[in-house]
Amino acid sequence: MSITTDPFRIHSRMTRVLHAATALAIVWQLGLSLLMVPPDDAPVLGAPMILHEYGGAISLVVLVLFWLNAMTRRTGTSLRALLPWGSPARLAALWADLKAHLGALVHLRAPTHQADTGLASAVHGAGLLLMTAMAASGLLWWQGPASLTETAIELHVLCGNLVWAYLIGHALMGLFNHVRKDTSLGQMWSFGPRKELN
Fold first, then answer.
1. How far is CA 133 from CA 51, 59, 127, 136, 138, in A?
2. Residue 126 belongs to some domain of the structure
3. Residue 179's pLDDT is what?
4. What average pLDDT is seen over the chain?
5. Is residue 7 in some structural domain?
6. Is the model more confident about 194 or about 150?
7. What is the spatial distance between Cα 23 and Cα 17, in angstroms, rounded to a whole number?
8. Is pLDDT above 50 for 197?
9. Within-domain flag for 2
10. Coil, strand, or helix at residue 182?
């Protein structure tokens, strides 16, 4: 079986479950970050900080499972499409797709929605890399050597801020595509069976 781009059967149930688990884990972590008191400012770690530390470890496990799924799945977006940086052909497709989107926006038109385009795939891959870096740097700060804690927390905070932007943009694009009827939120978040591949 080869990778498919049919939007009605592009993602396996496992991919959809891992996507939902990643979304929930990241929203949980970002929400807790708003309630936390930095360890330097508190004599005892509060519940939000402790939940954030353990939640971060769980988030990293979910992300590792997502990466393993992306490397081994037989349907859906290929790992090469998620990470097009090493392929001149994929970079050219990404650039062409980006120019088409910018051209549509310049003319105040919405770009045509396609789930399997170079831009959509690369954005998903960048988000996955960003969230993995955020979770890994948090774990390094929490459990790593003392000599790396300052660098790890700086990277973690930077990634966290970028993940906020990514999450907001990702959610808004989902709502935008739902309102335009390109696809529905029900279809995006469905865990039901998909059509079988021939």
1. 19, 11, 10, 5, 8
2. yes
3. 85
4. 86
5. no
6. 150
7. 10
8. no
9. no
10. coil
CB atoms closer than 10 angstroms to residue 30: 15
Task: Single out the residue of 156, 132, 133, 135 nearest to residue 39, CA to CA.
Answer: 156
CATH at residue 47: 1.20.950.20
CA angle 170, 71, 18 (to 5 degrees): 45
8 Å CB contact between 118 and 93:
yes
Are 112 and 181 contacting, i.e. CB atoms less than 8 angstroms apart?
A: no
The verdict on residue 139 lying in a domain is yes
> Which residues span the domain enclosing 73?
13-187
Query: Two tokens at 82?
Result: 């998620």
Determine which of 75-79, 88-92, 164-168, 177-181 has the lowest per-residue pLDDT on average: 177-181
Per-residue pLDDT of 168-188, as tens digits, reads: 999 998 888 788 777 777 777
Q: What tokens does 57 get? A: 């470890």
Give the global pTM: 0.84
